[in-house]
Design a protein that fits this description.
Number of strands: 9
Number of domains: 1
Structural class: alpha+beta
CATH topology: Beta-lactamase
CATH class: Alpha Beta
Order of helices and strands: HEEEEHHHHHHEHHHEEEEHHH
Strand content: 5-15%
Largest sheet: 5 strands, antiparallel
Radius of gyration: 19 Å
Bound molecules: glutamine
Number of helices: 13
CATH superfamily: DD-peptidase/beta-lactamase superfamily
Distance between the termini: 36 Å
Shape: globular
CATH architecture: 3-Layer(aba) Sandwich
Helix content: 40-55%
Length: 342
Protein backbone atom coordinates (compact mmCIF):
# COMPACT_ATOMS: atom_id res chain seq x y z
CA UNK A 1 0.00 0.00 0.00
CA UNK A 2 1.35 3.44 -0.90
CA UNK A 3 2.14 5.94 1.90
CA UNK A 4 -0.56 8.20 0.58
CA UNK A 5 -3.19 5.45 0.67
CA UNK A 6 -2.04 4.46 4.17
CA UNK A 7 -2.43 8.03 5.45
CA UNK A 8 -5.85 8.20 3.89
CA UNK A 9 -6.86 4.94 5.58
CA UNK A 10 -5.48 6.03 8.98
CA UNK A 11 -7.44 9.25 8.71
CA UNK A 12 -10.61 7.37 7.89
CA UNK A 13 -10.18 4.85 10.72
CA UNK A 14 -9.36 7.69 13.14
CA UNK A 15 -12.44 9.59 12.10
CA UNK A 16 -14.61 6.53 12.53
CA UNK A 17 -13.18 5.82 16.01
CA UNK A 18 -13.59 9.33 17.32
CA UNK A 19 -17.20 9.46 16.30
CA UNK A 20 -18.09 5.91 17.14
CA UNK A 21 -18.60 5.55 20.86
CA UNK A 22 -22.14 6.75 21.66
CA UNK A 23 -23.80 5.37 18.53
CA UNK A 24 -21.98 2.09 18.93
CA UNK A 25 -23.44 1.87 22.43
CA UNK A 26 -26.91 2.53 21.05
CA UNK A 27 -26.50 -0.20 18.43
CA UNK A 28 -25.29 -2.65 21.06
CA UNK A 29 -28.31 -1.89 23.21
CA UNK A 30 -30.67 -2.37 20.27
CA UNK A 31 -29.02 -5.67 19.47
CA UNK A 32 -29.42 -6.86 23.07
CA UNK A 33 -33.01 -5.64 23.18
CA UNK A 34 -34.10 -7.76 20.20
CA UNK A 35 -31.67 -10.67 20.08
CA UNK A 36 -34.02 -12.96 22.01
CA UNK A 37 -37.01 -12.27 19.76
CA UNK A 38 -38.00 -15.64 18.32
CA UNK A 39 -41.08 -14.66 16.29
CA UNK A 40 -41.39 -15.29 12.56
CA UNK A 41 -40.14 -17.98 10.22
CA UNK A 42 -37.31 -18.32 7.74
CA UNK A 43 -38.60 -18.23 4.10
CA UNK A 44 -38.76 -21.70 2.59
CA UNK A 45 -40.73 -21.25 -0.65
CA UNK A 46 -37.31 -20.83 -2.27
CA UNK A 47 -35.77 -24.05 -0.88
CA UNK A 48 -32.23 -22.66 -0.64
CA UNK A 49 -33.38 -19.84 1.69
CA UNK A 50 -34.64 -22.39 4.23
CA UNK A 51 -30.99 -23.12 5.11
CA UNK A 52 -30.60 -19.71 6.83
CA UNK A 53 -29.80 -19.76 10.54
CA UNK A 54 -32.78 -18.19 12.38
CA UNK A 55 -30.42 -16.75 15.01
CA UNK A 56 -28.48 -14.56 12.57
CA UNK A 57 -28.89 -10.92 13.49
CA UNK A 58 -26.87 -7.94 12.34
CA UNK A 59 -27.36 -4.18 12.29
CA UNK A 60 -25.25 -1.65 10.36
CA UNK A 61 -25.38 2.06 9.88
CA UNK A 62 -23.38 4.16 7.46
CA UNK A 63 -23.64 7.94 7.56
CA UNK A 64 -23.93 10.08 4.45
CA UNK A 65 -20.28 10.99 5.16
CA UNK A 66 -19.21 7.34 5.18
CA UNK A 67 -18.79 6.61 8.91
CA UNK A 68 -19.80 3.01 9.54
CA UNK A 69 -21.07 1.17 12.62
CA UNK A 70 -21.94 -2.52 12.93
CA UNK A 71 -23.16 -4.92 15.55
CA UNK A 72 -23.81 -8.68 15.43
CA UNK A 73 -23.66 -10.73 12.23
CA UNK A 74 -22.76 -7.79 10.02
CA UNK A 75 -20.44 -9.83 7.81
CA UNK A 76 -22.74 -12.80 7.12
CA UNK A 77 -23.67 -12.90 3.44
CA UNK A 78 -27.25 -13.47 2.37
CA UNK A 79 -29.24 -12.95 -0.84
CA UNK A 80 -30.54 -9.43 -1.33
CA UNK A 81 -33.90 -10.60 -2.78
CA UNK A 82 -36.51 -7.85 -3.04
CA UNK A 83 -34.23 -5.29 -1.42
CA UNK A 84 -32.69 -5.12 -4.93
CA UNK A 85 -35.87 -3.75 -6.48
CA UNK A 86 -35.49 0.01 -5.94
CA UNK A 87 -32.03 -0.04 -7.51
CA UNK A 88 -32.99 -1.90 -10.67
CA UNK A 89 -35.91 0.55 -10.91
CA UNK A 90 -33.23 3.27 -10.79
CA UNK A 91 -31.33 1.63 -13.63
CA UNK A 92 -34.53 1.43 -15.70
CA UNK A 93 -35.09 5.15 -15.05
CA UNK A 94 -31.58 5.92 -16.27
CA UNK A 95 -32.15 3.77 -19.35
CA UNK A 96 -35.63 5.05 -20.33
CA UNK A 97 -36.40 8.24 -18.39
CA UNK A 98 -39.37 8.72 -16.09
CA UNK A 99 -42.17 8.53 -18.65
CA UNK A 100 -40.59 5.59 -20.46
CA UNK A 101 -40.67 3.61 -17.22
CA UNK A 102 -44.10 4.86 -16.13
CA UNK A 103 -45.59 3.44 -19.34
CA UNK A 104 -44.72 -0.03 -18.09
CA UNK A 105 -45.03 0.18 -14.30
CA UNK A 106 -47.07 2.33 -11.91
CA UNK A 107 -46.25 3.65 -8.44
CA UNK A 108 -49.41 2.73 -6.51
CA UNK A 109 -49.23 0.58 -3.37
CA UNK A 110 -51.09 -2.69 -3.95
CA UNK A 111 -52.20 -3.84 -0.51
CA UNK A 112 -51.56 -7.32 -1.97
CA UNK A 113 -48.84 -9.84 -1.24
CA UNK A 114 -45.54 -9.18 -3.06
CA UNK A 115 -46.01 -12.15 -5.39
CA UNK A 116 -49.69 -11.54 -6.24
CA UNK A 117 -50.57 -12.31 -9.86
CA UNK A 118 -52.34 -9.03 -10.43
CA UNK A 119 -52.10 -6.02 -12.75
CA UNK A 120 -53.92 -2.67 -12.76
CA UNK A 121 -57.21 -3.43 -14.53
CA UNK A 122 -57.34 -0.11 -16.33
CA UNK A 123 -53.74 0.45 -17.40
CA UNK A 124 -52.69 -3.23 -17.38
CA UNK A 125 -49.46 -2.14 -15.72
CA UNK A 126 -48.05 -3.81 -12.64
CA UNK A 127 -48.90 -1.62 -9.64
CA UNK A 128 -45.39 -0.63 -8.60
CA UNK A 129 -41.74 -1.68 -9.02
CA UNK A 130 -41.45 -2.99 -5.43
CA UNK A 131 -43.70 -6.04 -5.97
CA UNK A 132 -42.59 -8.97 -8.11
CA UNK A 133 -44.70 -8.03 -11.16
CA UNK A 134 -43.31 -4.49 -11.25
CA UNK A 135 -39.78 -5.68 -10.57
CA UNK A 136 -39.93 -8.15 -13.47
CA UNK A 137 -41.20 -5.32 -15.69
CA UNK A 138 -38.32 -3.07 -14.55
CA UNK A 139 -35.78 -5.86 -15.09
CA UNK A 140 -37.20 -6.13 -18.61
CA UNK A 141 -36.28 -2.46 -19.15
CA UNK A 142 -32.57 -2.93 -18.35
CA UNK A 143 -30.75 -2.27 -21.59
CA UNK A 144 -27.86 -4.22 -23.11
CA UNK A 145 -26.80 -5.70 -26.45
CA UNK A 146 -27.32 -9.23 -25.13
CA UNK A 147 -28.13 -11.07 -21.90
CA UNK A 148 -24.56 -11.11 -20.48
CA UNK A 149 -24.28 -7.37 -21.05
CA UNK A 150 -27.59 -6.74 -19.29
CA UNK A 151 -26.55 -8.86 -16.31
CA UNK A 152 -23.15 -7.14 -16.31
CA UNK A 153 -24.70 -3.66 -16.25
CA UNK A 154 -26.98 -4.68 -13.40
CA UNK A 155 -24.10 -6.13 -11.35
CA UNK A 156 -21.92 -3.08 -12.06
CA UNK A 157 -24.70 -0.84 -10.82
CA UNK A 158 -24.86 -2.72 -7.49
CA UNK A 159 -21.06 -2.62 -7.26
CA UNK A 160 -21.18 1.18 -7.47
CA UNK A 161 -23.66 1.32 -4.58
CA UNK A 162 -21.81 -1.08 -2.27
CA UNK A 163 -18.31 0.04 -3.24
CA UNK A 164 -16.99 -3.40 -4.24
CA UNK A 165 -17.65 -6.15 -6.75
CA UNK A 166 -20.81 -8.19 -6.10
CA UNK A 167 -21.51 -11.87 -6.77
CA UNK A 168 -24.58 -13.97 -7.38
CA UNK A 169 -25.20 -16.99 -5.13
CA UNK A 170 -25.54 -19.69 -7.79
CA UNK A 171 -27.40 -22.07 -5.48
CA UNK A 172 -30.02 -19.46 -4.62
CA UNK A 173 -30.28 -18.47 -8.27
CA UNK A 174 -30.85 -22.09 -9.35
CA UNK A 175 -33.30 -22.64 -6.52
CA UNK A 176 -35.35 -19.57 -7.58
CA UNK A 177 -35.18 -20.52 -11.19
CA UNK A 178 -36.39 -24.08 -10.68
CA UNK A 179 -39.27 -23.07 -8.38
CA UNK A 180 -40.17 -19.69 -9.91
CA UNK A 181 -43.50 -20.72 -11.45
CA UNK A 182 -45.44 -17.82 -9.94
CA UNK A 183 -42.95 -15.33 -11.31
CA UNK A 184 -43.16 -17.00 -14.71
CA UNK A 185 -46.96 -16.78 -14.56
CA UNK A 186 -46.65 -13.05 -13.81
CA UNK A 187 -44.24 -12.71 -16.73
CA UNK A 188 -46.67 -14.41 -19.12
CA UNK A 189 -49.59 -12.28 -17.92
CA UNK A 190 -47.56 -9.11 -18.49
CA UNK A 191 -46.47 -10.36 -21.91
CA UNK A 192 -50.14 -10.80 -22.78
CA UNK A 193 -50.67 -7.08 -22.12
CA UNK A 194 -47.46 -5.94 -23.79
CA UNK A 195 -45.93 -4.74 -20.51
CA UNK A 196 -42.81 -6.79 -21.17
CA UNK A 197 -41.10 -7.53 -24.49
CA UNK A 198 -40.83 -10.82 -26.34
CA UNK A 199 -37.56 -11.58 -24.55
CA UNK A 200 -39.27 -11.53 -21.18
CA UNK A 201 -38.06 -15.02 -20.28
CA UNK A 202 -34.53 -13.66 -20.38
CA UNK A 203 -35.68 -10.79 -18.15
CA UNK A 204 -37.04 -13.31 -15.66
CA UNK A 205 -33.57 -14.83 -15.52
CA UNK A 206 -32.15 -11.36 -14.95
CA UNK A 207 -34.67 -10.86 -12.15
CA UNK A 208 -33.65 -14.18 -10.52
CA UNK A 209 -30.02 -13.08 -10.79
CA UNK A 210 -30.66 -9.71 -9.16
CA UNK A 211 -32.52 -11.37 -6.26
CA UNK A 212 -29.62 -13.81 -5.71
CA UNK A 213 -26.89 -11.19 -5.28
CA UNK A 214 -25.00 -11.72 -2.02
CA UNK A 215 -24.78 -8.83 0.41
CA UNK A 216 -24.10 -8.21 4.09
CA UNK A 217 -26.12 -5.84 6.25
CA UNK A 218 -23.12 -3.50 6.06
CA UNK A 219 -23.52 -3.55 2.26
CA UNK A 220 -27.21 -2.68 2.64
CA UNK A 221 -26.33 0.21 4.95
CA UNK A 222 -23.78 1.43 2.38
CA UNK A 223 -26.39 1.23 -0.37
CA UNK A 224 -28.72 3.24 1.87
CA UNK A 225 -25.99 5.76 2.63
CA UNK A 226 -25.39 6.19 -1.10
CA UNK A 227 -29.03 7.19 -1.58
CA UNK A 228 -28.86 9.33 1.58
CA UNK A 229 -25.88 11.07 -0.03
CA UNK A 230 -27.76 11.94 -3.23
CA UNK A 231 -26.61 8.87 -5.17
CA UNK A 232 -22.85 9.04 -4.51
CA UNK A 233 -21.20 6.30 -2.48
CA UNK A 234 -19.77 8.29 0.45
CA UNK A 235 -16.64 6.14 0.79
CA UNK A 236 -15.58 5.64 -2.84
CA UNK A 237 -16.99 8.92 -4.17
CA UNK A 238 -18.44 7.01 -7.13
CA UNK A 239 -21.89 8.00 -8.39
CA UNK A 240 -24.25 5.01 -8.38
CA UNK A 241 -27.34 6.71 -9.81
CA UNK A 242 -28.19 9.93 -11.59
CA UNK A 243 -29.11 12.47 -8.85
CA UNK A 244 -32.42 13.41 -10.47
CA UNK A 245 -33.84 9.92 -9.85
CA UNK A 246 -32.94 9.51 -6.16
CA UNK A 247 -36.21 11.10 -5.00
CA UNK A 248 -38.25 8.66 -7.08
CA UNK A 249 -36.52 5.65 -5.54
CA UNK A 250 -37.03 7.04 -2.04
CA UNK A 251 -40.69 7.90 -2.51
CA UNK A 252 -41.61 4.51 -3.94
CA UNK A 253 -39.68 2.86 -1.10
CA UNK A 254 -41.67 4.89 1.43
CA UNK A 255 -45.06 4.12 -0.14
CA UNK A 256 -44.50 0.54 -1.38
CA UNK A 257 -41.22 -0.82 0.03
CA UNK A 258 -42.50 -3.05 2.83
CA UNK A 259 -45.00 -5.18 0.89
CA UNK A 260 -48.55 -5.07 2.23
CA UNK A 261 -47.24 -3.53 5.46
CA UNK A 262 -46.09 -0.46 3.51
CA UNK A 263 -48.92 1.82 4.64
CA UNK A 264 -48.47 1.06 8.31
CA UNK A 265 -44.70 1.30 7.91
CA UNK A 266 -44.94 4.78 6.35
CA UNK A 267 -47.35 5.76 9.12
CA UNK A 268 -45.44 4.39 12.10
CA UNK A 269 -41.78 4.37 11.01
CA UNK A 270 -41.78 6.94 8.19
CA UNK A 271 -38.42 5.99 6.66
CA UNK A 272 -38.03 4.94 3.00
CA UNK A 273 -37.09 1.26 3.16
CA UNK A 274 -37.12 -2.01 1.25
CA UNK A 275 -37.12 -5.52 2.61
CA UNK A 276 -36.29 -8.87 1.06
CA UNK A 277 -37.27 -12.45 1.93
CA UNK A 278 -33.61 -13.21 2.64
CA UNK A 279 -34.16 -11.23 5.86
CA UNK A 280 -32.54 -7.95 4.84
CA UNK A 281 -33.94 -4.44 5.15
CA UNK A 282 -32.31 -1.35 3.67
CA UNK A 283 -33.56 1.98 5.05
CA UNK A 284 -32.60 5.55 4.20
CA UNK A 285 -32.69 8.76 6.18
CA UNK A 286 -32.13 11.26 3.36
CA UNK A 287 -29.11 13.48 3.87
CA UNK A 288 -28.15 11.56 6.96
CA UNK A 289 -27.90 7.80 7.13
CA UNK A 290 -28.22 4.37 5.56
CA UNK A 291 -29.43 1.51 7.77
CA UNK A 292 -29.03 -2.20 7.02
CA UNK A 293 -30.60 -4.90 9.18
CA UNK A 294 -30.35 -8.64 8.66
CA UNK A 295 -32.36 -11.29 10.48
CA UNK A 296 -33.94 -14.08 8.41
CA UNK A 297 -37.11 -14.78 10.42
CA UNK A 298 -40.00 -13.14 8.58
CA UNK A 299 -43.49 -12.11 9.60
CA UNK A 300 -46.57 -13.16 7.60
CA UNK A 301 -46.08 -10.31 5.13
CA UNK A 302 -42.49 -11.29 4.41
CA UNK A 303 -40.65 -8.60 6.40
CA UNK A 304 -37.84 -9.43 8.82
CA UNK A 305 -39.38 -9.40 12.31
CA UNK A 306 -36.31 -8.05 14.06
CA UNK A 307 -35.59 -5.74 11.13
CA UNK A 308 -38.97 -4.03 11.50
CA UNK A 309 -38.42 -3.71 15.26
CA UNK A 310 -34.94 -2.23 14.91
CA UNK A 311 -36.01 0.35 12.32
CA UNK A 312 -39.08 1.32 14.35
CA UNK A 313 -37.00 1.77 17.46
CA UNK A 314 -34.38 3.85 15.65
CA UNK A 315 -37.08 6.01 14.11
CA UNK A 316 -38.64 6.73 17.51
CA UNK A 317 -35.33 7.14 19.28
CA UNK A 318 -33.95 9.75 16.89
CA UNK A 319 -37.13 11.27 15.44
CA UNK A 320 -36.34 9.96 11.94
CA UNK A 321 -39.94 9.83 10.66
CA UNK A 322 -40.18 11.79 7.39
CA UNK A 323 -42.92 14.02 8.79
CA UNK A 324 -41.51 14.57 12.24
CA UNK A 325 -41.76 18.31 12.86
CA UNK A 326 -38.53 18.57 14.78
CA UNK A 327 -36.39 16.96 12.11
CA UNK A 328 -33.05 18.51 12.94
CA UNK A 329 -31.87 15.11 14.22
CA UNK A 330 -30.08 16.73 17.10
CA UNK A 331 -30.10 13.59 19.24
CA UNK A 332 -28.59 11.62 16.37
CA UNK A 333 -25.97 14.26 15.61
CA UNK A 334 -24.91 14.25 19.25
CA UNK A 335 -24.16 10.53 18.97
CA UNK A 336 -22.35 10.85 15.67
CA UNK A 337 -20.14 13.85 16.32
CA UNK A 338 -19.86 14.28 20.08
CA UNK A 339 -16.82 16.53 19.72
CA UNK A 340 -18.84 19.12 17.83
CA UNK A 341 -21.74 19.36 20.19
CA UNK A 342 -19.68 19.98 23.33
N1 LIG B 1 -36.87 -13.65 -5.43
C1 LIG B 1 -38.02 -13.51 -4.59
C2 LIG B 1 -39.28 -13.84 -5.37
O1 LIG B 1 -39.33 -13.54 -6.53
C3 LIG B 1 -38.06 -12.12 -4.06
C4 LIG B 1 -39.24 -11.86 -3.19
C5 LIG B 1 -39.00 -11.00 -2.01
O2 LIG B 1 -37.90 -10.78 -1.50
N2 LIG B 1 -40.09 -10.51 -1.51
O3 LIG B 1 -40.20 -14.41 -4.88
Amino acid sequence: MSEEKKDELDLLVGRMRSAAAPLRGTLNRLYEQFRDVRDGKVADYIPELAKANPDWFGISMVTAQGQAFDVGDASVKFSIQSASKPFVFGLALEDHGLEGVMNKVGVEPTGEAFNAIVLDEVSNRPFNPMVNAGAIATADLVKGADYPERVGRMLDMFARYVGHEVFVDTKVFMSERVTGHRNRAIGHLMRNFGMVGENFEESLELYFQQCSILVTCRDLAMIGATLANGGINPVTGVRAIDAQYVKYLLSVMLSCGMYDYAGEWAFRVGIPAKSGVGGGIVAVVPGKLGIGVFSPCLDLKGNSVRGVKVCSELSHMFGLHAFELDRNHQSLDEQLLPQRSR
